[in-house]
Amino acid sequence: MRNGQLLAAAEEERFRRIKHWAGFPSQAIGYCLKEAKIDLSDVTHVAVNRSGRANLLRKLRYVAFKRPNLRLLLNRWRNHKQVMQIDDELRALPGRPYRGTIEYIEHHLAHLASAFYPSPFREAAVVSVDGFGDFASAAWGRGRGTSLSLDGRVLFPHSLGIFYQAMTQYLGFPHYGDEYKLMGLAAYGNSSCRQEVEKLLSLKNDGTFALDLKYFRHHKEDIAYEWHGGEPVCGPLFSQALIEALGPPREPDAPIEDRHRNLAFATQAVYEDSFFHLLNALHRRDGHTAIALAGGCAYNSVANGKIKDRTGFTQCYLQAAAGDAGGAIGAAYAVWHRSGARTPEMTHAFWGPSFSDAELAALLEERRTDIETEACRVQTLADEKELVGTAARAIAAGQVVGWFQGRMEWGPRALGDRSILGDPRRADMKNILNLKIKRRESFRPFAPSILREAVADWFVRSDDVPFMLQVIPIRPERRGQIPAVTHVDGTGRLQTVDRASNSRYYALIEAFFRLTGVPMVLNTSFNENEPVVCRPEEALDCFLRTKMDVLVLGNHLVRRTAQAKAETPI
Ligand SMILES: [Fe+2]
């Protein structure tokens, strides 16, 4: 960030090619410096979204009175130290040494800052909900102009994020970040297990919540927990008491049964009740109509889509990287706003690396043999109209198109620069994508990117959802027209696309609209069981090893010929 303007933001996982990679982000730092055309010695502040001092008294009181397991304490302390001692790692970076300050910002204050400061609101309620960070799992405050207060917290060991993650693990999805699988599965269930899951937590009069701790392990046992130098690992969070109450957990490879679907439904329902209980208490307190949200739980796009129906808030903003990655820019925003000047609204997510046309052309030349071996043909279309027209025709013909353009997205969603696109009208598109590339669980929905002006025609509300973080019901009469992006409950996790934020992607969807009368395309992230592609080499490799039909790299089209398709039918 320079003079309050965000210059670059990218997650380390994209460079390391390991999903959710946790640890010192040296490659992302290298990229940001390159993008800003500066050296580390030019930087004046490094901000970190953790603070050893935050909630220190409460931590000490907890240790004194609850006497938790010593190994648990030591492991937590070790993890904490790795995040807090970054001086050595900064010094080890290439180039002239860092001479500025290191600012440690409380985890949830960084979350709140990441939500409010990039929002369009002059005044808003600001809420953060996650697993844990600096001994708290939720926090809230008031944002006003350049000021932001942190007024309240839910402290360890109570956590909505832990509740959701424990149930995700129980249902056989053990990996870090698997919560969206439970969210997708929930739409297939009914409310028959609700009372069983309601026992796991209770709602308090002040708007907060408390876990029934006998069902959880995180507060008393040393759970395997690794958060450094690779994919994060977290051992089982649920206790034997939960197994006794709900029955044996589902093994990851076991079939999904109705009971699992119903438990997923109940988990989502109990989560929503607790989340809206908190939001309604905050609305009653201040009467704000706008809310800005962050924290890992802010990726619960199903709950986010219901905020307007179930609370008094009429406007909602979520920044593209609402989870912990967003804490990086949140910490930077918190430091910048001491200057008293407000930063501009974040209206798009394109803050990552980009590659010039010359670089793309050179890559295609260099890899010509690989491309020809796969019986693919390269074509360059410098005229944008021709380029988007050709890609739109391929999509309308049922082909799967890899779409690589401009700067990589910030946050977990591909939003039209590192996307794989398909025809939303085809009922078989989900299967085609899963067979050709994704091989993901059949219950997970695909999402539409829709022209901003067309939202009201296709969805029950005309909200602006630029970062794909809200799920909204599709108009019942439209659902049959776009089966590939209509979830089983009639909803869609839409991305609204406006011309100003991404003119080429807008032009592509517009071209598809002219061909088909449908103003949207199916958009899924450009990857195959790996982090979203960052560099064109990764996009080309993904294209060549999967059965994608077309790859658009900037102005260049790589197509599988009829011969290639005959050799590898899906
Ligand atoms: Fe967090």
Salient structural properties:
globular; binds fe (ii) ion
Question: Which helices and strands occur, and which strands form pairs?
Answer:
Layout (H helix, E strand, L loop, with lengths): L11 H5 L9 H11 L8 E4 L7 H11 L3 H15 L2 H5 L9 E4 L2 H10 L6 E11 L2 E9 L2 E2 L3 E4 L4 H11 L8 H8 L7 H5 L2 E3 L5 E3 L13 E2 L6 E2 L5 H7 L11 H29 L3 E5 L6 H4 L2 H4 L4 E4 L7 H11 L20 H10 L1 H6 L2 E5 L3 H13 L4 E4 L13 E5 L6 H10 L8 E5 L3 H4 L13 E2 L17 E2 L2 E3 L5 H14 L3 E6 L10 H10 L4 E4 L2 E5 L1 H6 L3
Parallel strand pairs: 1-2, 3-11, 11-12, 14-21, 16-19
Antiparallel strand pairs: 3-4, 4-5, 4-6, 7-8, 9-10, 13-22, 14-15, 15-20, 16-20, 17-18, 21-22
Helix pairs in contact: 6-14, 7-11, 8-11, 17-20
Bound molecules: fe (ii) ion.
Number of helices: 22
Q: What is the averaged pLDDT score?
A: 93
N/C terminus separation: 46 Å
Radius of gyration over all CA atoms, rounded:
24 Å
Spatial ordering of strands, largest sheet = 13-22-21-14-15-20-16-19
Low-confidence stretches: none
Sheet with most strands? 8 strands, mixed
Shape: globular
- Beta-strand residue percentage: 15-25%
Counting DSSP E segments of at least 2 residues, the number of strands comes to 22
* Helicity level: 25-40%
Which ligands does the model contain, each kind named once? Answer: fe (ii) ion
Counting helices, strands and paired strands, the structural category is: alpha+beta
